[in-house]
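Chain A, query sequence.
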Amino acid sequence: MDSRELTRGERAAIRKLVTSMCANYDSEYGCLPLDYGGCYMLDKCWTGAYCKYFQNAVLPNDPKLEATLLGKAAPEMDACAICGKAFVSNETRAYCSPACQAEGNRRRSRERMSKKRSSNKA
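Chain A, predicted structure.
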């Protein structure tokens, strides 16, 4: 894949992932394993070489960004029925998180019981 300049959205997404998900990043000291204190990924302007930890442990948390940066096929994304957030779909998952799954189960149970109660009255 040819090297290209990162878009503004890609840089913002990388910054968000690094500052929120990277175990090596500290807001006071920067990247802990590096001696100079700055984080390589926060200063990144071009595609190409990435921090190994970021590429293997942090980037998979954003599948669309991972597909764009690494030149892979973009995964199929579905919208969560509860919160509407996009997530990577497969045949067994209908919700983006266990919290949304629990809420979906509560709603279905409530509807089922309501239907059962109304049929018992008739």
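The first strand starts at residue 25 and ends at 26. Helices lie at 8-21, 52-58, 63-70, 98-121.
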